[in-house]
Write a structure and sequence with these properties.
The structure is a homodimer of 322-residue chains.
Chain A lengths: L1 E6 L3 E7 L5 E8 L4 H18 L9 E6 L2 E3 L4 E5 L4 E4 L1 H9 L4 E4 H12 L9 E6 L3 E7 L2 E3 L35 H7 L7 H10 L3 H25 L3 E5 L6 H18 L1 H6 L1 H4 E3 L6 H9 L12 H11 L1
Parallel strand pairs in A: 1-4, 4-8, 9-12, 12-13
Antiparallel strand pairs in A: 1-2, 2-3, 5-6, 6-7, 9-10, 10-11
Organism (chains A, B): Cnuibacter physcomitrellae
Pfam family, one (chains A, B): ROK
Keywords (chains A, B): Kinase, Transferase
Chain lengths: 322, 322
C-alpha cells in the first residue's frame, strides 16, 4: 500500500493506493496556513488515513507528498510555497520526524503529472504526457518515456514564464507579457476584478451577456491556453496534453474552447494540422486526485519511478471517480 | 566499427567510428541534387569510406544516415527534403538495396543532437541537451536522459514554428511571426538580400558600419536565438543548449551576443537569473561532424540508442577536431 498527499492552498487531499494501484481510501481536509500548520495538516491526514486503512504509517511501502513551490526532492526542503504562507520549510524532515518514517516530497504539479499519466485511460499507448496546470499560475509537469522529467534544476515545465506579448504587463518574475499573465487564474483575477470567489465564472457570465471587454479577456485566455498546448507539442511532441488545476473545473467548456482555437489555427496551417493538436488535448475530470495519486507514486523512492498499474485497476479507479 | 553519413544541401559528410567511439575516418563530397543523385551520393560515399577503412559495407556493426526532411525511422522513407530537391523518397530502401545491408535513417538535426551529445566534453555530468540548429530554418534535436527524444510523431524540437510576433510575416507553415521567420538563415536572407553567399556576413558588416536597418535585423536575430534558448530551458530544463547548423560558423560572435542578451534578461528577472541560461549555451566548434557521428550512433539499430563512448575516446575525438 502507498500513501499520497496533495497539499493545496485551501484543501489537502490524502489517498491510499492498494498493491494493484487502485484507490483504496481517500480523505480531504482544510489546509492550515503557515509552516507549522502545513506540517500539522500533513501529519494529521497521514495518521487519519493510515488509521482508516488499518495500518501504522511505518507499514506503508511509501509515503509521498505533493506541495506547491520549489522542492528539493533529495532533502524534502520546500521554498516559495506562497499560497501556503511558506517561504522556506524543512517540510520533509519535519513530517518524517513526526510520523517516524521517511516521506518523499515533490512539487505538486509534477506529482499531478505522474498521477494523471498513470490514472487516465489510454496511457498504455502513450509514452509521454504534459500536464498543463491552470491554477493561480500556469505551469506544466512532464512525463517522458513513462517517467517524470524534472530537468536539470527541477524547472522543466515552467512554460508560464515564456513571454508571448512584448507589450504585455510586467510579470512578478520580472519579464513582460509572460503566458501566465494572460492564461491563469491570477491573470483573470487581475483583468476582471470580481467578488466571485471564482472570478472566471463572473467573467464568462459577462462575456456570455455580451460585454465586449469580458469577451476580449476570455478570448485572450483561451487563445493563450491553446498557445501553451502548442508550445508543449512543438517542443516535446507529447502524445497528450492533459489540462488540470483549479480552472480545469471549467470542464467541457474549456476543452471545447481550446479545441476550437486549435482547429482554427490548423485550418490556416497544414503543418499544425498534420500535428493533430486538437486531438491531443484532454481536461482532467472534476475531483480527480491526480496530485495525491502521483505523490503516492513519487513516494516509491525515486524521482523517476516506473510504476506499472494494471489496466483493470485503472478502470476501477476511473469508475470510482465518476 | 560504425559508419555514419550526413547528407547536407551542399556537402555530404561520412565518418567511421572505431569500436571505442573515436573518429577513425572522415570523407566529404558534394551532394548531388534530386532523388537519384542523393541516393548515388550516399552509396558512393559509403563505398569509398568503407574501402578507406579496409572493410566491406556488410562488415560494419551499423550504417546510419542523417538527412534533412521528415523521416520515418522504421522504413527509411523521407519526405520534404526541400534543399535536396527531394519531395518523397524511399531513401533507406534504395540505399540498402544498392549496398546490400540495412541502413538506418534519421532526420539530420536529430542525428546531430545525438552526435553533439556524445562528442562534446562534459556530457558525463549531463543527462540532457538541446541541439539548436540554426540553418536555413530553425529546429532543435533533444537528448533527454541520455537518449534521443523524437516525440509521438517525430516532431519534437520543432520550435521554429512557435509564433513570437503576432505582427510578424507569414511563415511558409501558415502561421504568422514564427521564430524561424526572425532567427534563421532564411530570415536573414529575406530581410537582408545580398549577393554574399552567406548573407549574414554582409548584414553584420553593414551593422558594424553603422547601418540602422542592419542593426535592427541583427539585434532581432540575436534576441530571438536567445528566445529559442529560453523556450528550450523553460520547457525542458535541459542541462545545455548547443547551437549548431550553418550559422554556428559565427562562432564566438554568436555565443557572446546570445549570452549578452540572456544576461540582460537575467538582470531584470531574478527567476531567469536563477536558471543560469547564459551558462548553459554553447556553440558547436567549426567543422564538427555532429550529424555524421550521430548517424553512426543512430545506426546502432534503435531510435533510442544508449551508446557509451569512453571518456578517453571522447578526448581523442575532440582533439582530432581541433
Amino acid at each position: 500500500m502507498r500513501l499520497g498527499l496533495d497539499i493545496g492552498g485551501t484543501k489537502t487531499d490524502a489517498v491510499v493506493l492498494d498493491d494493484g494501484g487502485a484507490l483504496a481510501h481517500r480523505l480531504r481536509a482544510a489546509t492550515g496556513l503557515g509552516a507549522d500548520a502545513v506540517v500539522a495538516t500533513a501529519v494529521t491526514l497521514i495518521e487519519r488515513i493510515a488509521s482508516e486503512a488499518g495500518l501504522e504509517p511505518a507499514s506503508f511501502d511509501s509515503i509521498g507528498v505533493g506541495i506547491p513551490g520549489q522542492v528539493d526532492t533529495a532533502t524534502g526542503h520546500v521554498w516559495h510555497a506562497v499560497n501556503l504562507g511558506v517561504d522556506e520549510l524543512d517540510f520533509g524532515g519535519r513530517v518524517s520526524e513526526r510520523i517516524g518514517v521517511p516521506v518523499s516530497v515533490e512539487n505538486d504539479v509534477k506529482a499531478a503529472a505522474l498521477g494523471a499519466y498513470h490514472l487516465l485511460p489510454g496511457r498504455q499507448q502513450e509514452r509521454s504526457m504534459a500536464y498543463l496546470n491552470l491554477g493561480t499560475g500556469l505551469a506544466a509537469g512532464l512525463v517522458i518515456d513513462g517517467r517524470l522529467w524534472r530537468g536539470a534544476r527541477g524547472a522543466a515545465g515552467e512554460i508560464g514564464h515564456i513571454p508571448v506579448d512584448p507589450q504585455g504587463v510586467l510579470c512578478p518574475c520580472g519579464q513582460r507579457g509572460c503566458l501566465e499573465t494572460v492564461a491563469s487564474g491570477s491573470a483573470i483575477a487581475r483583468q476582471w476584478p470580481s467578488d466571485d470567489p471564482i472570478p472566471i465564472r463572473s467573467l464568462l457570465a459577462a462575456a456570455e451577456a455580451g460585454d465586449g471587454a469580458a469577451q476580449r479577456i476570455r478570448d485572450s485566455f483561451v487563445d493563450n491556453v491553446a498557445a501553451a498546448v502548442r508550445v508543449l507539442v512543438l517542443t516535446l511532441d507529447v502524445d497528450t496534453v492533459t489540462i488540470g488545476g483549479g480552472l480545469s473545473a471549467l470542464g467541457d467548456w474549456l476543452l471545447d474552447s481550446v479545441r476550437e482555437v486549435l482547429g482554427r489555427w490548423a485550418a490556416d496551417s497544414a503543418f499544425l494540422a498534420s500535428l493533430g493538436l486538437s486531438d491531443r488535448v484532454r481536461v482532467v475530470p472534476a475531483g480527480f486526485p491526480a496530485a495525491a495519486v502521483g505523490a503516492a507514486l513519487v513516494g516509491a523512492g525515486t524521482s523517476h519511478p516506473v510504476v506499472s498499474l494494471g489496466e483493470q485497476r485503472d478502470e476501477r479507479v476511473v469508475s470510482w471517480l465518476k
